[in-house]
């Protein structure tokens, strides 16, 4: 940290990873926020209500670099801090003639302080909801002016997508709760409270036996014709054989495969560390995939075109569905199908929950010494049915 100058602020470069702050060591609480867009905003933070650790922390935006000089912003910061020392609260009293913090400001602070702590997929979902839905409606609104009517209207505008509508409402509620904690709204004023959520009906779409046979045939024909890559086809087979989530399969690394225990030990997932149990059919797919990728040197089981992993299978799956003449089946429905096969073969619900890594199974999964055979048996039940429909015999491989 050093004294802010025009030269120092001009030299502060934007980071793709997100916004960050550069603080001044001459005036306590005075700093500049460097946004990913390259914009730089001067601000001052202080403790309201006479100061002290128990007082709420205020963040006061002073203006953009370029519209204000560094010295002008420093002078404004000193005026704010002088008012605070005199027992005033410049933010609540609008000491500086400016608009109240906007929802855009609220998001930017959340983006820096809280978003990095979320899992990658959650960050991606939040960013998408903000960019596509919340920002166009609320970004320019003062945080303190957002009403329950505003939130109800935004929520109802998404009634055709009830699940998305409820997720957007939850994110807005989190932002407004933080606004209260930061002193940007009065306590207990969260406008998302009492907004009625939409009923979410669980989707129950499973592939029938005939559809499973058609998918197996389509995969073979499309790979033979060169219309679908062999690795992409193997990734789809892994989704059915294991019941794993799409991202769990696509991001899996070879180093996580524990061959002698027939599992992939994921260090993290939606529900934390978990094993993906490998049936005989899944092992068969892995052995084939290892041959396909042994020259690539990739650390990923399903490598992408660059050094990373395969990103998405949506287009491939649509092509398979067209060839198999099936409709209204999402990639996530393959996970449901795997579970339904296990149920149909007599596996218990607790074992299926463990097999799929449901959050309710976390207590069981903590006991690493417990024999995994029951869950592995459930995985093999799935494999046996799939191999039957696909005209394959279960295979046992020496993978050591």
In short:
The strands form two sheets. The protein has a four-stranded antiparallel sheet with strand order 1-2-3-4, with helices on one face. A three-stranded antiparallel sheet has the order 5-6-7.
Structure explained in plain terms:
With 400 residues, the protein is α+β, with helices and mostly antiparallel strands. The chain folds into three domains: 6-98, Double Stranded RNA Binding Domain; 104-181; 209-389, hpI Integrase, Chain A. The protein contains 15 helices and seven strands. The protein has helices at 6-11, 70-85, 103-113, 120-138, 148-156, 162-181, 209-225, 230-242, 246-250, 280-293, 314-324, 332-344, 349-356, 362-365, 373-389, and strands at residues 20-23, 30-34, 40-47, 57-64, 257-258, 263-266, 274-277. A four-stranded antiparallel β-sheet has the order 1-2-3-4, with helices on one face. A three-stranded antiparallel β-sheet has the order 5-6-7. A hairpin with a 4-residue loop joins strand 5 (257-258) and strand 6. The radius of gyration is 27 Å and the shape is elongated. It starts with 5 loop residues before the first helix and ends in an 11-residue tail after the last helix. Residues 95-99 and 360-372 have low confidence and may be disordered.
Topology:
Layout: H1 6-11, E1 20-23, E2 30-34, E3 40-47, E4 57-64, H2 70-85, H3 103-113, H4 120-138, H5 148-156, H6 162-181, H7 209-225, H8 230-242, H9 246-250, E5 257-258, E6 263-266, E7 274-277, H10 280-293, H11 314-324, H12 332-344, H13 349-356, H14 362-365, H15 373-389
Antiparallel strand pairs: 1-2, 2-3, 3-4, 5-6, 6-7
